[in-house]
Amino acid sequence: MFSFFNGSPSIVLSGRSIDDYTAYATLNYINDTFSIDCIYIDMKSKENGISSKKGTCGLNKKITDDYQDFIEGFVEDNENNINTNYILDGKAKTLPILISRVNDAYLYQLYKNKTDLLNDKYSIMSLSNKSGCKSYEGVTWTVDNTLNKGPTTVLKEIIKNGVVFLEDAIANSDESSEIDSCQLFRMVSVKTEKSFFYDDKNKITKSYLVNGDLVTLLNMSQGDKWCGISYLNQANKKIGGNVLCTTLKF
Question: What residues contact 177, with CB distance under 8 A and at least 6 apart?
Answer without folding.
Answer: 135
